[in-house]
Amino acid sequence: MKKYEHIIFDLDNTLLNFSLSEHHALKAMFTKYGVIFNEETFAEYKEINHELWTKLEEGRIKKETVLETRFAKFFALKGLQVDGKVADDEYRTFLENRNDVMDGTVELLKQLKADGYSIYAGTNGVGRTQRKRLKNADISEFFTELYISEEVGFEKPDMRFFEAIFIQEQIKDLSKVLMVGDSLTSDIKGSNRVGIDSIWINNFNESVGDDKPTFICTNLKQIENILNN
């Protein structure tokens, strides 16, 4: 008998290879605006973006602030004045045209579906972008439902994001729910807040902080072993 019945997957750097997609999309953006794309400029953008997303997860700013200011701030460092909202929309178009997935994504989803699990996406992001990327990757069919923070109205790790899933799917027994994700600060912290088990995919050999997952793996192939044991 299976311990879990419902599996909630984060998307970026869990099932979808966001790092690779982001790399290509940013390269296209920098080229469009005449900025050299190299390790230094990439790191400058990442620092700005990370700071904004951290503030969003902490509830200090709204998502609109992240999306409308990150490119405006970055290009300002390069002496360029751009409309942040327009630039973000351009970036999102580049991103949406990618179909990069993590190794083992399709095989895992096929097996879990065959094994009778209910599979959900639980992701912080923009609805149109996440849906388009899932469609491009040809994996939309595996999900019972998609829960995207822009559409839900709350960001992980907010308990209300997870509670929206439980209510919509009429899940009463939370011991049957498993969250899978790569972020300690959103996926694992959120799971701990609502009292569900979690698998942390440690892609970058990081240390576990205060928010400890139930299980740890370094790739998707290890998830089946966790579920079977």
UniProtKB/TrEMBL annotation:
Q: Name one GO molecular function term.
A: 5'-nucleotidase activity
Q: Which organism is it from?
A: Vagococcus hydrophili
Q: What is this protein called?
A: Noncanonical pyrimidine nucleotidase, YjjG family
**Superkingdom assignment:** Bacteria
> Cross-referenced Gene3D superfamilies, in alphabetical order?
HAD superfamily/HAD-like, Putative phosphatase, domain 2
